[in-house]
Predict the structure.
Amino acid sequence: MMNMIWGWNSNVCVVFEEWHITNTGQWIGSVIGLWIICFLREFTAIFRKLHARSMIAEERSSAQQPFLENQSKSQTWSIVVDSLWYLANLTLSYFLMLVFMTYNGGIIITVLFGCFASHFLLSMLVKRKTGAAAPMVGADHCCDEI
């Protein structure tokens, strides 16, 4: 059973009964696994914003017609793909929230540092590849520079 009391102990159950950390090897594996989840969550967030930028650019270049008349199959699939990326991001975010709610100081620091490192590294990668800053997650489309 998951402990809901703040602590720093090394014997912790993380989300599932099967994910029970009892030794150093399991801690190291959990840290690596949580970092991977943090990177995947940040990747889905940044990819969604980059995809949204391309969708906005595509919409601006198309003729100004009513919404339903202007919907092509590629635009519909683009929205479906964006929705699937949103679902992946939301699922990973909620999972990290549940991990955070173990109230274990070591796990919390791992998640915080993993989120910081993934955002920093992926933002630098996007800046290097595109020459522009990584899109801010949650920013309004009016603020995007295309």
Notes: Residues 18 and 69 are 51 Å apart (CA to CA). Residues 24-61 form the longest helix (38 residues).
